[in-house]
């Protein structure tokens, strides 16, 4: 296993971070409120009630395991109740921490997560600040700096070991940004169909707020989400696509989703182009051969610009291999996480 330096002193919160719930003791609050209430069908009560309509058994099973943990974001008395799926086991190898795509949630890992556990890995699936099922009632900033700091505080409070950080699509940009800023927290990177060459949200950041809110409302619409599924996946039925659309937009039904997403878009988003060559960690690049969103030449470019990377291509696979080819992705992650660990 790569030798890692000791964790640096706690970083100061980014400018503009507002206060949330009072934390007190993180562990005591986690024990008291982490799971929250449960519905009669076993879902956390903080999930939108529409979760009951989802048919996909993997989504339903993972949704039942989501809980909220208090993550300190400002003063010692302030925290955000942050949604995660915690591991059932602790492994001798470093933990695998799963991020998700733009405007998504940990449910994206519904197919691969149980396979990682079957492989004996300590796996966390977490929601990036501003998306997923975190409690954002206080409307904290959801810009890049706030997302990075929130992930660091979650890692520092609960994970506490160098991690194999996995990022699909925009999650790859989140992972690169985090690994460069907090190298002591990341042992290796796994980047899946990485969206890392966009220059942030571009002109969208300059939109008048009324236009930005209208655009974000469109992001939640079933037709647009259904079209995105058609682009992302190969050969799934209409019924499956509709069900997966409901999975993918479930977090959009929380009352603060629109404000958090507008805040992120207006902030300028992720531009990690200059950070790619600064990545010191070994990286595994996974790409779907039939990805219609990220071009193969971008993956090749990333492979060339990273200091230490290997690349694996999955045939008959689109933009989300961890949903389409979960066994292949789980095996690649497990093998990569254990390589050089002895």
Could you give the topology of this structure?
Layout lengths: L20 E2 L3 H8 L23 H9 L1 E6 L5 E8 L10 E3 L14 H6 L4 E4 L17 H16 L3 E6 L1 H12 L4 E7 L16 H11 L2 H11 L5 H11 L8 H11 L14 E7 L7 H10 L3 E6 L6 H4 L1 H13 L4
Parallel strand pairs: 4-5, 4-6, 6-7, 7-8, 8-9
Antiparallel strand pairs: 1-3, 2-3, 3-5
Helix pairs in contact: 6-9, 7-8
Written overview of the protein:
The structure is a single chain. This protein is an alpha/beta fold. The protein contains twelve helices and nine strands. Strands 1, 2, 3, 4, 5, 6, 7, 8 and 9 form a nine-stranded mixed sheet that branches. Helix 6 packs across helix 9 and helix 7 (222-232) crosses helix 8 (238-248).
Characterize the biggest β-sheet: 9 strands, mixed
List the secondary-structure elements in sequence, H or E. Answer: EHHEEEHEHEHEHHHHEHEHH
* Rg result: 19 Å
How many strand elements? 9
What percent of residues adopt helix (DSSP H or I)?
25-40%
Count of alpha/pi helices: 12
Which spans have pLDDT < 50 for at least 5 consecutive residues?
1-10, 15-19
Strand content: 5-15%
Quick recap:
The radius of gyration is 19 Å and the shape is globular. Helix content is 36%, strand content 14%.
Which features does this protein show?
36% helix; alpha/beta; globular; 12 helices; disordered N terminus; 342 residues; nine-stranded mixed β-sheet
């Amino acid at each position: 296993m790569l030798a890692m330096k000791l964790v640096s002193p706690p970083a100061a919160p980014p400018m503009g971070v507002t206060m949330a719930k009072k934390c007190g003791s993180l562990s005591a609050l986690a024990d008291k409120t982490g799971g929250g209430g449960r519905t009669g069908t076993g879902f956390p009560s903080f999930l939108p009630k529409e979760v009951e309509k989802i048919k996909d058994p993997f989504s339903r099973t993972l949704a039942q395991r989501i809980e909220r943990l208090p993550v300190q974001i400002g003063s010692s008395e302030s925290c955000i109740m942050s949604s995660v799926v915690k591991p059932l086991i602790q492994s001798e190898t470093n933990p695998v921490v799963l991020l998700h795509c733009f405007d998504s949630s940990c449910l994206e890992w519904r197919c691969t997560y149980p396979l990682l556990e079957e492989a004996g890995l300590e796996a966390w699936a977490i929601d990036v600040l501003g998306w997923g099922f975190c409690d954002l009632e206080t409307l904290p900033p959801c810009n890049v700096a706030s997302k990075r700091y929130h992930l660091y505080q979650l890692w520092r409070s609960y994970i506490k070991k160098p991690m194999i950080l996995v990022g699909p699509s925009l999650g790859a940009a989140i992972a690169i940004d985090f690994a460069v800023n907090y190298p002591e927290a990341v042992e290796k990177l796994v980047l899946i169909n990485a969206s890392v060459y966009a220059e942030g949200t571009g002109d969208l950041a300059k939109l008048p707020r009324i236009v930005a809110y209208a655009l974000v409302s469109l992001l939640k619409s079933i037709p647009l989400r259904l079209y995105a599924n058609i682009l992302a996946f190969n050969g799934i039925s209409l019924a499956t696509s509709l069900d997966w659309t409901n999975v993918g937009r479930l977090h959009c039904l929380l009352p603060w989703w629109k404000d958090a997403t507008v805040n992120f878009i207006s902030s300028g988003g992720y531009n990690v182009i200059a950070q790619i060559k600064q990545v010191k960690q070994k990286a595994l690049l996974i790409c779907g051969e039939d990805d219609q969103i990220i071009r193969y030449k971008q993956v090749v470019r990333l492979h060339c610009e990273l200091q230490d990377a290997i690349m694996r291509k999955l045939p008959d696979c689109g933009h989300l291999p961890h949903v389409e080819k979960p066994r292949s992705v789980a095996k690649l992650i497990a093998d990569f996480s254990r390589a050089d660990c002895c």
